[in-house]
Amino acid sequence: MKFGVEIEAIGATADGAARMVNGQGVPCVSESYNHNVRNHWKVVYDASVHDTRGNSTRGGRGGFELVSPVLEGENGKEQVRKALKGLRDGGCTVNRTCGLHVHIDARSMPLDQLKKLVALYLKHEHLIDAIMPDSRKASANYFCKSLLNRVNGGNYPRTEETRVAAVNQMIRQVLAARDITALGTIINNGDRYYKINLQSFWRHGTIEFRQHAGTVNGAKVLAWIELLEAMVIRAGEIERFNPARVSNKSIRSQFSAFAGNLVSEETRKFFLRRIDALNGTPEPQGFEATE
């Protein structure tokens, strides 16, 4: 399926980051801020991203956003690998102001599949939280709020019972949406700063996943893309959507069962290592928890 990535990072000027990516044989251009889809990778200024001294790209070696063209298949994923290698080799890194956004093409996705994709994410959002640093769990980050805020007075539920109740309430609303406009209103209501952003559909024909923390680690990015693509496929296969329930199993066990039906064994183990490294472990100040 077609996809695209937006990689926020620090440690280079826009021109410098573009040179790093070009050095890996991936065509990349430094541009002024824009939302235009290009046939090449581009580096743009991002006001929300800044280095530890508060510098943005406009101030020099501060934050920037590397944006891919429309990608597809293994060739697209190889471009992601090379682009990220260029940034890493060039000394770029990330901090808490950085995020990773993945767009999945939704123009030909049936409404029923799109609704079930959102419902599937809602049902397993607490498990996806487990593979994220603290700054990306629940509704800790303004730029990727939980969808559950939409049915809980703008707040994330405080107990497991209220979380499950909110999940099922939201799922009922999502599955009842009569068209994509109604679905977008239910999950975003004009605000794109949620873990799932459907506002991008009207601009790019995509559904945007905003939850993942910033990273220049290719393994993390590709594992996340694999999980999202698998969830898209799974959403198209679901006939009857079962409600969420309170579980007495550990988050690790729940995630293992969830991912085991979706991704490769190698990727499942990769995510379990992430859970072991992140769950209950404070995120280091400034930089991502583990490589």
Protein described:
With 291 residues, this protein is of the alpha+beta class. The chain is 41% helix and 12% strand. It has nine helices and eight strands. It has helices spanning 14-22, 73-89, 111-129, 160-176, 180-187, 200-204, 218-237, 251-260, 265-278, and strands at residues 2-10, 28-30, 41-44, 63-67, 71-72, 100-105, 196-197, 206-209. Strands 1, 2, 3, 4, 5, 6, 7 and 8 form an eight-stranded mixed beta sheet that branches. Helix 1 packs across helix 2 (73-89) and helix 3 (111-129) runs antiparallel to helix 8 (251-260). 43% of the residues are buried.
Strand percentage? 5-15%
Percent in helix = 40-55%
Q: Structural class of the secondary structure composition?
A: alpha+beta
Terminal CA distance reads 27 Å
Count of discrete alpha- or pi-helical segments spanning 4 or more residues: 9
Q: Kindly state the mean pLDDT as a whole number?
A: 91
Tell me how many strands there are. 8
Residue windows where pLDDT falls under 50 for at least 5 positions: 282-291
The biggest beta sheet reads: 8 strands, mixed
- Topology pattern, helix = H, strand = E: EHEEEEHEHHHEHEHHH
Backbone CA Rg:
18 Å
What would the principal axes of the Cα set say about the shape?
A: globular
Give the topology.
Blueprint: E1 2-10, H1 14-22, E2 28-30, E3 41-44, E4 63-67, E5 71-72, H2 73-89, E6 100-105, H3 111-129, H4 160-176, H5 180-187, E7 196-197, H6 200-204, E8 206-209, H7 218-237, H8 251-260, H9 265-278
Parallel strand pairs: 2-3
Antiparallel strand pairs: 1-4, 1-5, 1-6, 3-4, 6-8, 7-8
Provide a concise account of the structure shown:
By secondary structure, the chain is α+β, with helices and mostly antiparallel strands.
